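Handout, page 2. Input:
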Amino acid sequence: MKKFFILIILILNTFNVVFAKDYEFKAEDLFYLDQMNSHNQDFALYFKSREKSVLARGETANYINDYPKDLYIYDYKSKKSSPLISYEWFPAQARYYLEEYDFPVFPDDFAYYLLKDNQTLIMISAVKSLKANFKFDINKKKLELYPSNGKFDFIISSFAKNCGHSNLEDNYKCSLHKPLISSNLIN
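Output:
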């Protein structure tokens, strides 16, 4: 009996090694890197590097953020692109909400979740010492502090999980929503 269990464990370990070698996780499996389409395919959000570097005061020393990225929106119908969240206004607006945080905040310091309404972005901080998240209305271009009680309308990890019935005729199904992040966060 003991030999039988050892044999089963060896077989299962062999399968795990084979399956682990067949599939390697890439960052693209968990995140949209630098570009994502809206749910209705009307527009795309993407990060674009700035032309000038930014000298910023860091937590331990001053540093130069060579080319921070701004978040842009591209409208497929009008074929026009415009800045959505840029370094020109975002740090000052974020500072209004971040009274205890004395360092600059860049648009590419966040993971962006686009909600199903295609007009609301939930911005989750990727900076460990920055304990604030934001909600951004794309149409009104309005930034708000998202409640810090940790109760989001969806599950946050590396992706958001949305489960349920979309209408009475549909079956129960789950969909995963990957966040948009800047490639600067990975590098």
